Amino acid sequence: MELNLSESRSRSIRCIVKLGGAAITCKNELEKIHDENLEVVACQLRQAMLEGSAPSKVIGMDWSKRPGSSEISCDVDDLGDQESSAFSKFVVVHGAGSFGHFQASRSGVHKGGLEKPIVKAGFVATRISVTNLNLEIVRALAREGIPTIGMSPFSCGWSTSKRDVASADLSTVAKTIESGFVPVLHGDAVLDNILGCTILSGDVIIRHLADHLKPEYVVFLTDVLGVYDRPPSEPEAVLLKEIAVGEDGSWKVVNPVLERTNKKVDYSLAAHDTTGGMETKISEAAMIAKLGIDVYIVKAATTHSQRALNGDLRDSVPEDWLGTIIRFSK
């Protein structure tokens, strides 16, 4: 595995952000983006990333024609007098939501078997879907003046072995960050040494990136307030505000104190979700926390998510903050 990370560590990676598919897409409507949420998320990311005073005007970087518009929006004339904005180093990874999961589940891409025509066709269809979403997210962030670069794991040489990351050339990611850009990766269909192919989830990608880039903190933006002791749609569901991870990787709820300390968290999973849903998210978050990196799971496009993105929770957590913190505890 090629890892050229010395440059990226010359100045610390501040945060890796996971945009949950359910938060940025309408998960029950095929290939439909949640435009309002995505717009707020982009604005919050810009606020969190900016160092020093913010410019009076946002200079957008999406100079492409948008659907329903007859003109190309280009702010190039405004760039001449604009001072360069200083952004702290962020990496963005997003899930697929209503993009990709349908194609993958219908064809069985996540199970492997590229010799089957339906799996090969599904592999192509899945990648078309998720890369389309990646482009739209890159464009949304670029419209907020964030210098984003879309990066597909398949095209960057990521592959797996029985669904575990087998290779990942992170030198391109490191060089992109050092050049002042914000990489935007996504869950993708990739080749697998044993299965032939599978789905590499955004949550697994984040854990791998965190292991090598060592960010100050990681934020998972979801469609619910955080992790609950049961599906949040149930009336007696309790928000778990803090989960402690031990040296052996095991975890326990420390806030609130539950009636039964060995009480397990119940997971709900959409029928078409091929990446493991919340269970995978907690498992990967626990492995990140074991590295000594705090993980915040919080609802996207809220005041709570803005505070998490800003890094406001690192020293102390306000009582009125709603979300889940997963951190290492010796």
TrEMBL record:
Keyword Transferase: yes
Keyword Kinase (UniProt): yes
Gene Ontology cellular-component annotations: cytosol
Keywords from the named record: ATP-binding, Kinase, Nucleotide-binding, Transferase
Domain Aspartate/glutamate/uridylate kinase intervals: 88-298
Signal peptide positions on this chain: none
Pfam families: AA_kinase
Gene Ontology molecular functions: ATP binding; isopentenyl phosphate kinase activity; kinase activity
Gene Ontology biological process terms from the UniProt entry: terpenoid biosynthetic process
Protein name: Aspartate/glutamate/uridylate kinase
